[in-house]
Structure formats: structure tokens, C-alpha cells
User: Which sequence fits this backbone?
């Protein structure tokens, strides 16, 4: 079982496919808290969405080497926080050992948006902005 080292938080971000929202969140957390242990996973992982990679690269964060992972890989590990980023996964989220605090952010999945490439890209950018704002707000709260 992985345990937190004093001052070093362990965070798991969950969504259904681990292709977009949770991957972006993992990238932002890793950028802002390089000394924390950050993971992301999905209930049914489907692979990294190329638009997620593009949007994060526009923000100067490379997530191209991240991989979709199953939540099953982490169910025996301790986390300080488990963050769900969609309503569907909130209902399916397993319980983790230890004293994890569960946080829920309902963020629309831009993967299901139809329309032109430019419109989809715009939705991915909006999703990235919302995730980044949530993470910055979260960091302000836990650092006080």
C-alpha cells in the first residue's frame, strides 16, 4: 500500500474513460505540485484523447506520455484525495483504503461534443480552463 509522505499528498483523479478530463487534471496537478504523487484512472479506460494532448500543450504542459489506466490498478492504495470529475463515475467510484477525502467536480465530457474540429477544440479548451480553475481553487484551500 502506498502511503503519503509528510507534506506530499497523494491524489487520484477519476472519470469514466481516463481519456480527457482526468488526464488534464493529472497534468495540471503535476505541473503545479511537482512534489505530490498524482494519478488518474478510469472505470473503463479508452486511451488518451489527442485533443486533450493538444489543449494541454497549448498551456505548456505535455501529457502525451500519459496512459489511460484502470481504477482497478489503484483500489488497494491509500490516497489523501480522490477527485471524481463526472457524475457517472461519482456513482461508480470504489472505496479506497485509508482516510481519503472524496471530492466531486461535475465537468462535462468534451469528447461527446459534435460539430467541427474547431468547435470541438473550443470545448476542450473550455474544459481545460474549468479543470485548471478547480485545481487552483483546491490548492488554495488545502494549503491554508
Assistant:
Amino acid at each position: 500500500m502506498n502511503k503519503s509522505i509528510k507534506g506530499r499528498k497523494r491524489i487520484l483523479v477519476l472519470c469514466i474513460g481516463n481519456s480527457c478530463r482526468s488526464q488534464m487534471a493529472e497534468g495540471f496537478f503535476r505541473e503545479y505540485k511537482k512534489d505530490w504523487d498524482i494519478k488518474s484512472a478510469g472505470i473503463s479506460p479508452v486511451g488518451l484523447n489527442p485533443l486533450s494532448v493538444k489543449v494541454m500543450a497549448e498551456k505548456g504542459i505535455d501529457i502525451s506520455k500519459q496512459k489511460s489506466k484502470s481504477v482497478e490498478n489503484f483500489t488497494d492504495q491509500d490516497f489523501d484525495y480522490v477527485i471524481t470529475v463526472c457524475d457517472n463515475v461519482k456513482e461508480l467510484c470504489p472505496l479506497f483504503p485509508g482516510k481519503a477525502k472524496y471530492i466531486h467536480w461535475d465537468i462535462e465530457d468534451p469528447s461527446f461534443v459534435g460539430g467541427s474540429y474547431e468547435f470541438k477544440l473550443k470545448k476542450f479548451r473550455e474544459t481545460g480552463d474549468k479543470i485548471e480553475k478547480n485545481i487552483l481553487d483546491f490548492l488554495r484551500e488545502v494549503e491554508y
Summary: The chain has a mean pLDDT of 90. The first helix runs from residue 21 to 32. Helices lie at 21-32, 50-58, 87-92, 117-142. The radius of gyration is 14 Å.
